[in-house]
Amino acid sequence: MKRLMESRRLDSEGQxxxxxxxxxxxxxxxxxxxxxxxxxxxxxxxxxxFVGSACLLIMVMLLVGGSPLPSRSQ
Length: 74
Fold this sequence. Notes:
Layout: H1 2-9, H2 12-44, H3 48-65
Helix pairs in contact: 1-2, 2-3
C-alpha cells in the first residue's frame, strides 16, 4: 500500500529513489529483525520483542506522520 501511495505522488526519478529506499529498508528489517528479536527474547523475556516492535512502530509513526509526500510535478 505504501508503495502504491508513493508511486502515484512522485515523478519518475523520485519513484525510483523512494521505492529503492523502501526495498532496502525492508531487506534490512528482514535480515536484522529475527536475530534481534530472538536476542531480546532470550535476554529480556518473551514479551520484549513485541514491546520493542511497538515502540519502534510508534517512533516511526511520529516521525513520518507529519510529513506529507511531495506532489507530483506535471
